[in-house]
Write a structure and sequence with these properties.
About 35% of the residues are buried. The strands form four sheets. The protein has a six-stranded mixed beta sheet, with helices on both faces. It has a three-stranded antiparallel beta sheet with strand order 10-7-11. The chain has a two-stranded antiparallel sheet with strand order 1-2. It is elongated. With about 300 residues, it is α/β, with parallel strands linked by helices.
């Protein structure tokens, strides 16, 4: 006997019709009738009396209906108890600066709402540094850009970020069209992270592929300082849209970069499930949920969810 069969039986009794119950439950009438027949067969008694005008419970069906209501209520209470139990502990989560700018506060809010007794330790750092910390068990999970996952990690693609050319309004050479290609940026003064940054490696490879070199006027590895320099007009940068999430977006021009090979994939990486605490397992689910929610709300422009 299954809980769903009890729910089916209760719904049929409530509506007095196999067809109406099937419609509300999203089942074919024949499939619903088959489930009720299996239930009657297991109990070795007739629960419903079929009539031209519908169905009604037999005496045995009425007795069973009362207990079915009680069983379902207890089952629902058990689910609520499990969902509202005060999970406690701590979890260490790593986010790159651009990711933290968009997901950091929504993640804190979601964890505070769902698991108020879980203490968060959030680390904002370069993706490569986060991978090192994860491998050293200093983090439980992180969102990473390039993943060469050691054995034992759990890794799943989460989303894809479009890259933008971002510069101050009035910057000489700054593109202003609806989109731009990498070949058009050869003369544009750029401020990029150093070679240790995954995004810089991606851009170097893209420029090398077209046998060109970017005009780099400065290298800055901190997002806040980098964007301050861009806003001051020292050069443009190439970043995902999240780079300006902490700034007044009106201070910048942001033009999508259309080259095929210049997008950035984000991965949700964690230690193996055997190594994760219940708090970390719960936080991994929340982090994925928050990322998907922010993308679907439109608050993270230029990002698409990965289709598994």
């Amino acid at each position: 006997m299954e809980l769903r069969q009890l729910r089916y039986f209760v719904k049929v009794c409530e509506l007095g019709s196999m067809g109406k119950a099937a419609l509300e439950l999203g089942l074919a009438t024949s499939a619903l009738s088959q489930q009720i027949s299996r239930l009657e067969g297991e109990l070795a008694t007739r629960l419903l009396q079929r009539k031209a005008t519908g169905v009604q419970p037999t005496d045995a069906g009425l007795a069973f209906l009362q207990q079915a209501h009680l069983t379902l209520r207890h089952a629902d209470e058990a689910v609520r108890a499990a969902q509202t139990a005060r999970l406690s502990g701590h979890v260490n989560i790593g986010l790159a600066s651009t990711t933290a700018a968009v997901l950091g506060m929504p993640l804190m809010a979601a964890m505070a709402e769902r698991y108020p007794a879980v203490r968060l330790h959030l680390v904002e750092a370069l993706s490569g540094h986060l991978a090192t910390m994860l491998n050293a068990r200093q983090l439980d999970l992180a969102i990473l850009f390039g993943v060469d996952a050691p054995r034992g990690w759990s890794v799943s693609p989460l989303l894809d970020e479009e890259l933008f050319v971002i510069g101050a309004r009035g910057l000489a050479g700054m593109p202003t069209g609806p989109s731009v290609r990498l070949a058009q940026l050869v003369q544009l003064p750029l401020i990029l992270p150093s070679a240790s940054h995954g995004l810089r490696s991606l851009m170097d490879a893209a420029f090398a592929h077209m046998r060109a070199a970017p005009h780099i006027v400065a290298e800055i590895d901190g997002l806040s300082l980098l964007m301050d320099a861009v806003r001051a007009g020292y050069g443009a940068t190439i970043q995902p849209s999240a780079a300006i999430a902490r700034f007044d977006a009106q201070a910048f021009l942001s033009v999508p970069l259309q080259d095929v090979a210049t997008g950035r994939r984000n991965y949700l990486a964690s230690l193996s499930e055997e190594e994760l605490s219940p708090a970390a397992l719960a936080a991994r689910v929340v982090l994925g949920d928050v990322a998907r929610s922010v993308v679907r709300s439109g608050d993270w422009p230029g990002v698409t969810l990965h289709k598994n």
